[in-house]
Amino acid sequence: MGSGSFAIAQPAERRIGKGLKMNSSLELFGQDTINILGRTLFHFCWQACLIGLSVAAILALMKRYSARVRYFVVSCGLLLMAISLVATFVFIANSNQTQDLAQRQAENTEPTVVQDDPGDRLRDLAEDMRSEFGLPGIIIGFRQGKHPQHILVAGVTKKMDGRPLKANDRMHLGSVSKPLTATVVADLVAEGLLKWDTKLFDVFPDVQKKAHAVFHDVTVWDLLTHQARFTPFAEDSEIEKAPAYSGNATEDRRQFLRWAVQQPPQENSEDDLPYSNAGYCVLSSIVEQVTGKTYEEVVRKRLFDRLGLLHAGFGWPAKQDPAAPWGHRFVQDAFEPHPPDDDYQLGPFFAAPGDMHMSVGDLLRFGSAHLNAFKDAETPYDRSAIRKLHTTTTAYAGGWYIRPSGHYHTGSAETFFAFILVSPARDTVIAVATNGSNPDSEFKLAGKIIGRVYRAYSVMKQRDKGIPINQKESETDKK
Question: What architecture is domain 120-474?
Answer without folding.
Answer: 3-Layer(aba) Sandwich (3.40)
